[in-house]
Amino acid sequence: MTDMSYAPTRTQSPTTKLVLRFILYILLGVFALFYLMPLFVMITTSLKSLDEIRTGDLVSLPREVTFDAWRTAWSGACTGIQCEGVRPYFLNSLLIAIPAVLISTIIGALNGYVVAQWKFKGANIFFALLLFGCFIPFQVVLLPMAIVLGKLGISGTIPGLIFVHVIYGLGFTTLFFRNYYVSIPSELTKAAKVDGAGFFRIFWSIFLPLSLPIIVVSVIWQFTQIWNDFLFGVSFSQAGTQPVTVALNNIVNSTTGVKEYNVDMAAAIIAALPTLLVYVVAGKYFIRGLTAGSVKG
Amino acid sequence: MTRWLQDNMPKIVLAPSFIAVMVFVYGFIAWTAWVSLTRSRLMPRYELDSFIQYERLADSPRFETAMVNLAIFGTLFIVIAMVLGLLLAILLDQKIRTEGAIRTIYLYPMALSMIVTGTAWKWILNPELGIEATVKGWGFANFEFNWLVDPDMAIYTVVLAAVWQSSGFVMALFLAGLRSVDEEIIKAAQVDGIPTWRVYSAIIIPSMAPIFLSAFIVLAHLAIKAFDLVIALTGGGPGYATDLPATYMYAMAFSRGDIGQAASSAMVMMLVVFTIVVPYLYSELRTKDD
């Protein structure tokens, strides 16, 4: 238990230290329970039958494990009048998120490359404008965007939502790549220019090969943002094009029929799975992406 | 021609994004600002009519509730998430064996959408089947925990769920900050027999001032934009008890057909965000140029 690198202080006896360690681990454990409890409740509830939910309690394990609620959530639960489960909406979210993530990351990489390495008069002003744009509450663009999407003829469509996510994702992706490319010495670009390499050639053969870590951060950040989006989804989609967050909310808050709490929980877990998976597989990068720009390096 | 293309390639590459930002961020803000000064109802109208919409906002009890809720929610959410985040970071900084696993547990809510978080807590806080019923079932017949349906308490359930979702992120920020403090200073203080809590309160925490500011900015921004969580957890209810400016704006825009009110409430939200964020960004950009 004792850690040699942790220098003992004169004021603490070994017993005090042991007691303190014990309290420390208890505290950490209590907080871990607080964060895990909702997930535990969601999973157990989704595996119970409705009868058991009504008679049992929140924290008990299911007496009889049943996957009926999961089946209903996936392909039978009703979002308003339609009863196809979350499957089509899950697919919508993928159709929206994958292109939007790729496009906004590619444009962000090129923008960041310009702002960091090809400084020209006005490049910094552009960056500042973009950065301020990251912080606007989206409510302020909802109404004009609804009108513009209508004028462009992509109102309520998946390409429309991709468009919106690309536009408002640019600020963060540019920020990520700019901060990353700024640390690469500009002598490299200058030397390559002297050798006759052009703008894209330098990007393609020097910067892109160095970019894997920041691409991962950008992709994870954008995927999480877009997958978890609700405001744009609920404002700019219609019956057939809604993302999974909107469908989940419709299932949970639909007032017709018997309330199936187990189906609600199963649907919530399904809606959460992709980002949870990303988090578990690439958690380190996820944290790095979240803290990037917030902690000065 | 190709020479010109070569020389101007950086500008050409930046141009579409520049245009997009000017139109879809600044142009749209200008549009909303303009419409907030008109009598627009179901359809936007463009004849200016002074501050009529802002006067209507000021007279609206529902918007007043929304602003009071934002103040309560914002203050509690920011304070609790910061205190909890700092506490967790300090606890985790004590050379814990299972640090990686515990950090993962504290942080995973951040990966979830607010809609999922709201759905989960709505179920846990459900008075008939959630915590209240469970504790009653354990034999405490008088136990009451019906905040979700109590108009005076419902806003605190939003705080609870938001803290659950975001405090792990604050912890990660603070943990990164703690780790960047010079080890030598801490070791020297410990050799001198200065108790650990003094080392934290006198040396480590004061040196993390910039991170406190960053955490505050991020949390304040989250609080002002909070929308999904309220929609999923309470739907703004009971009545309008948990309305926030964001849900007010949405209701006006998409269910009440009152575009003037939607625009003016959105402008109020933006002003609140900008009074917090602009000085911060300004100082950030300045120090980076030096």
Give a quick set of tags describing it.
heterodimer, A: 297 residues, mainly alpha, MetI-like fold, 2 domains, 13 helices, 72% helix, disordered N terminus, B: 290 residues, flat, transport (chain B), MetI-like (chain B), ABC_transporter_permease (chain B), Lactose transport system permease protein LacF (chain B), transmembrane (chain B)
Structural description of this entry:
Chain A has 2 domains: 65 residues, no CATH class; 208 residues, MetI-like (MetI-like fold). Chain A has 13 helices and no strands. Chain A is flat, with a radius of gyration of 25 Å. Chain B has a single domain, classed as MetI-like (MetI-like fold), CATH 1.10.3720.10. The longest helix of chain B is centred in the N-terminal third of the chain and has 34 residues. Chain B is flat and about 70 Å long. At the A-B interface, α1, α4, α5, α6 and α7 of A face α1, α3, α4, α5 and α6 of B. Chain B: Belongs to the binding-protein-dependent transport system permease family.
- The top-level CATH class of chain B is Mainly Alpha
The main β sheet of chain B shows up as: none
Percent in helix of chain A: over 70%
**Contiguous helical run count of chain A:** 13
Low-confidence stretches of chain A: 1-9
Describe the global form of chain B: flat
CATH architecture assignment name of the largest domain in chain A: Orthogonal Bundle
SSE string of chain B: HHHHHHHHHHHHH
The CATH topology of the largest domain in chain A turns out to be: MetI-like fold
Query: Biggest interface: chains and residue counts?
Result: A-B, 96 and 106 residues
Averaged pLDDT of chain B, please?
90
Q: Average pLDDT value of chain A?
A: 88
The N- to C-terminal Cα distance of chain A equals 33 Å
If you consult CATH, what is the topology of chain B?
MetI-like fold
Question: Based on the structure given, which CATH architecture of chain B is correct?
Answer: Orthogonal Bundle
- Enumerate how many helices of chain B there are, as a single number: 13
Instruction: Bin the strand percentage of chain B.
Output: under 5%
Task: Let me know the CATH homologous superfamily of chain B.
Answer: MetI-like
